[in-house]
Amino acid sequence: MQFSKVIGQQQVKQSMVEAVANGRISHAQLFLGPEGNGALPLAIAYIQYLFCKNRTATDSCGTCSTCQNITKLSHPDLHFVFPLALSKEVEKSSDVFQKWKAAFMQNNYMSLTDWMNFLDAENKQPVIGVGESKDILHQLSMTSYEGSYKVMIVWMAEKLNLVAANKILKILEEPPDKTVFILITESTQLPVTILSRTQITKIPRLTEEEIAGALMQRNGQSKDVAQSIARSAEGNYRYAQVLLTENEDTQFFSKKFQDWMRICLRLDGDKLAEWIGSADSGISTIGREKQKQFLAFSMQIIRQGLLLGKFAVNIHASDADFLQKFSPYIPFENASLIIEEMNRAYHSIERNAHPKILFTSLSLRINGMLARPAMAKA
Ligand SMILES: [Zn+2]
What we know:
By secondary structure, the protein is an alpha/beta fold. Helices cover about 55% and strands about 5% of the residues. It starts with 9 loop residues before the first helix and ends in a 9-residue tail after the last helix.
């Protein structure tokens, strides 16, 4: 992970570069700032810069074996501690390090919620427990492989339980030689004794421009979409990613809904088969969660557009426009029946109904409820 792969944070990067250049590496550092600021990738880029043998004035080389190992999170002198869903099998970070690494590789900007979802442990309390402290002592007591620093990055340090925090405190007070602790936290809810023994670096939220730029470069978004999402993202790149997915889903659902209504109206068998089964975007191929979201989207549009005659802000102008043109084909009294059918389908999906059969029969029933004015053109 080079600095150049971390979004924005120029000032922080600059002060890290200077600290390394001047050999002023504090052995206990605390990175403090809100979710989505990139503190974790930044910490890794910082350590890579510290370890790299061929660093330049601004960044690590990215290609030496040290850089490569750090980028793969497999450098023997770099250790990680993070919150867990504790169980008999999982007491310390090293028990699930491979999973955590996979989650981080999937998304360098993952949040604690992402990590718990990755573990399928949404409903458990994430904790850095006492099982961790022995492991930390053990790992730091070993000699460093490359004869230089040993680093322990504690991600989401506010999840340290009190016993674990006290053990870490002891290490912070009497650190083994050439040891660097980086505690990453989103809140100052840490024991004062820890706060007072660390050098605090504030990692601010990103600017709107930085997020918009990242959405264009990393996510291939147009300037318009990137700017509009960046305005709502509150400096949180992870939240920007969520908004982007929602935006893409909405566009997909919108097109899918409009195509569907046209196909239901004319009951074109070939088109219906494609709408349901096509490999890239067929409704039967997108997974149950998305299918449910799509039906919820369709019900919302019909309910708000036809029954209430008004559109909530989250319904796009193109859907409103479509419905206005399409509304002559949906008799008012049938609109609620169509919603009922969709709702039934929604619950059938939850009960694992076969998606191809379900959407075929639903389309047939909707066809039966659409009106056919003499010159149907929609
Ligand atoms: Zn290097």
